[in-house]
Amino acid sequence: MKVTNFALVVATSTRVLLGCNTAAASVVVVDSAQEEQQQDVGVANEKDFVSKKNTPRQLGSKSPKGMKSAKGKRKNSKTGRKEPDTSENNRVEECDLNYCGAEPIALGALKTCLTGSFDHGSSLYFPYDEDYDLHRMTAFSYSRFPAAIVFAEDVEDVQTALACAVDNGYKVSARGGNHSYQGLGTMDGYVVIDMGRTCKPEDFVVDKDDQGPHIIEGSKYIGTIKAQAGCTNAIMLAHGHKHFGDQDGMTLIGSCPSVGITGFNLGGGGGDVSPYVGYGVDIVKEFQLVLYDGTIVKASEEENPELYWATRGGGGGNGVVTHLTYKIVQAPKQKYEDAGGKKFTWMRIAFNIKDLEKGAALIQEWFYDADPKITGKFGGGFGWDHGASYATFVYLGSWKEAIEDLKETGLLDHELFEFSPVPYASPPPRVGGAILTENYEVICQTFGPCPEIEDIPGATVSAEGSQVPAFSMFQFDSYAEVEAFQICVGRLYFFEDWSSTSGDFCKDLGLDDDKCEDGKLFFFGISADTLTSKIPKLCTDKDVIDAMLNAAGDPSGFMNSHGPSVQIFEQLAQLVVPALPVKEVIQFWMDTRSQDRGPGSAGASMFQRFDGSFFAKMLSETAQYSNHLQHGAALMVDPDETAYPWRNAAFMVEYETGDIADSFLERIVDGGYTPQGYYAYLNPSGMKKWRSYFFDDKWRILSEIRAKYDPKDVFGKPLTIESIGE
Asked: Which of 123-137, 607-621, 695-709 has the lowest mean pLDDT?
């Protein structure tokens, strides 16, 4: 049977259950020959890549005029009938990401089917249920109204939920960490299968005999871990360390601990050690999926290779991923490891570019041309602000070796760059004034003498009559510790959506109160000094880092689910309207937040190598930060090996607002380049050429593969490549 997409809307005033039939929204490509004749995108008009500015509508309202039918008709060469022209230039979104036209529907048959297999109220939620609003909430709190939310605990649960949905005409959305910037894991009117409870580290399959060479010459993977799809970055960090830490094994993760590993990898998977290990899609050796009809399949180089190709960066939509098998890559050989084992260093460096043309050229040469066996050891981020630049590196080695490598590869050039002394270069928070530590021991303090660095040529700069370090550096004995430190000095203790913290991080981490101090938690739409919290005093405290890694390994812990938590909403309720029930505060906040893109929800682009003068102008006229660098190994994989297309781009640049995104995309197009989008950080709907923006010309192949594995479009949704199916 043809699956109908029932979208469900709960009006805020009357709470009336509504739905709409948007079968027409599932755009079908009926003639691939015409698609093949379509001209390549090339350098396009900026309007093709700039998102439309849509005005938010009230809950339950009809779609705007013009959104009901595709523009243009074409004749089907097989049937002779006129049908929608679905080439990328003519396609429009039939229903926007929030709501669509509504007609009353009933949940009876679906509800009967699901309640026969799942515990209603603990594993299954419908509209009007007590905790429905809490469980439909996304990390970025876009207001979504699924027909049902099912918490699967194993593969059989996935099969059961799928059967109930398909047999009753509902589409299905699998949900992992629920961090989609546009809330697309929790779709209106869909049956949402939440995979979080499938994560059971005690059932991981660890294979230390499966080993082999990796991407960079001399690199290797030393084993694999088969994990459930509901696991998170934090889980993989902690348990990768548990099983392979003694061999210096590394599991690639992103910056946010509660992000789910499935969505992370379906969109590409960029992290701090991507320059050495590649993208997430380069280390997943096998996927296991449940197809729309309940069939369990594996996808690897040996089994269903086209599905394996598509699942590695193609955005999903072919089935419900239930397991991923990760390669664990060993840290590189280090110059000084014989003296005390391998080291891992977090370092920050800031500088002004004296000669923009030459400086910009050197920066690009470093990322694209220098020896990846050296530069691949430098992961992390790089930013610029109108001529000033800075890098936050996660380096795979000791701090001494890091300085030597920067000198050898030319980046430590005092003639081109004016390096900022550490005291004035924004040292990280919660380090107690330290600028150099080794395994939690403070070696040098801000404004104090630092002979260990002062004796290294090029590692210091003159400030107020003395030589002071040009770096702040924090060295650890394991990869897991340096990543935990990165999370600690990052945004975990500032943002309410990165974890389900109670607001008291010492309590959450099981630390004594004297390890924490009063802090402020940023809450979207609320003043940053409104919500109070208890945060760790020092990220250079071994007790804090150990507690973080312990919490990271607990699937039920606060680091493995997004916020805001109920406790945070209770605090908010007392501040806003004390008499208002927390449930209504949650609903009100989600509905309010859904009308604004919110921080970090405008998507991200992959910046390819630019002409020297163009890049110099960008560095001098704009301000931006590349959260994850993708040089080295990430650029060495053949572009045709996976569905992820951008093996030419070292910078992943995330946009905080739509206006910032539009200005950069317009600049790129005006410069003669084609914008390249990062699918894991989805931008809002409205971009005309979103398919090629995210997937280049691979979107046509992805569409054909979806037709094979999801011919009834059970998993179709906005910003998922459409199926050339029934």
From this structure: 123-137
More confident residue, 602 or 78: 602
Residue that the structure tokens 């993989």 belong to: 236
Coil/strand/helix, residue 379: strand
Residue 17 confidence (pLDDT): 30
Mean per-residue pLDDT, 183-196: 91
SS3 206: strand
Helix axes 582-593, 566-576, angle to 10 degrees: 90
Q: How far is CA 631 from CA 153, 212, 335, 381, 689, in A?
A: 38, 22, 22, 11, 26
For residue 589, the model assigns a pLDDT of 75
Looking at per-residue pLDDT, the higher value among 62 and 315 belongs to 315
Q: Report the relative pairing of strands 82-84 and 526-536 from DSSP bridges.
A: unpaired
223-277: per-residue pLDDT in tens? 999 999 999 999 999 999 999 999 999 999 998 999 999 999 999 999 999 999 9
* Residue linked to tokens 């109160």: 513
Token pair, residue 196, equals 């979080």
User: What are the strands of the beta sheet with 124-125, ordered from one edge?
Assistant: 124-125, 148-151, 191-194, 172-175
What sign does the CA torsion over 643, 646, 647, 650 have? negative
pTM of the prediction? 0.86
For 215-264, strand residue ranges (E) read 220-228, 249-250
645, with CB counted inside 10 A (0-12, 13-18, 19+), is buried
User: Which token pair is 344?
Assistant: 């891992």
- 582 contact partners, CB below 8 Å, separation of at least 6: 566, 569, 570, 573
Of 546, 451, 423, the closest CA to residue 443 belongs to 451
Rg of the chain over all Cα atoms, to the nearest angstrom: 25
Amino acid at 253: I
pLDDT at 598: 47
Half-sphere exposure of 268 (CA within 13 A, CB side): 28
The SS3 of residue 160 is helix
The H or E element containing residue 241 is helix 233-244
Above 90 in pLDDT, residue 602? no
pLDDT computed for residue 89 by the predictor: 47
Q: Which residue has the tokens 């790089």?
A: 382
| Long-range CB contacts for residues 574-581, cutoff 8 Å, separation at least 24 | 575/526, 575/530, 575/531
Residue type, position 506, single letter = C
Instruction: Please state, in angstroms and as integers, the Cα–Cα distance from residue 383 to each residue in 256, 305, 550, 679, following that order.
Output: 19, 38, 32, 21
Tokens of 521: 């938690």
pLDDT at 425: 59
Point out the least confidently predicted range of 134-138, 364-368, 662-666, 687-691.
134-138
The beta strand positions in 331-446, using DSSP E, are 344-353, 378-385, 388-395, 417-419, 434-438, 441-445
Distance, in Å, from the CA atom of 207 to the CA atom of 210, rounded to the nearest integer, reads 6
Long-range contacts of 54-60 (CB under 8 A, 24+ apart): 54/96, 54/684, 54/685, 54/686, 56/98, 56/594, 56/595, 56/596, 57/98, 57/99, 59/9, 59/10, 59/11, 59/12, 59/99, 59/143, 59/591, 60/9, 60/10, 60/11, 60/16, 60/18, 60/99, 60/102
Give φ, ψ of 42 to 5 degrees. Answer: 60, -150
| Joined tokens for residue 341 | 């084992």
3-state secondary structure of 479: helix
> What is the per-residue pLDDT for 437?
96
Span 511-567, pLDDT tens digits: 999 999 998 777 665 554 567 789 999 999 999 999 999 999 999 999 999 888 888
Mean pLDDT of the chain: 83
C-alpha pair distances (Å), 164 with each of 190, 290, 345, 583: 12, 14, 50, 29
- Sort strands 191-194 and 172-175 into parallel, antiparallel or unpaired: parallel
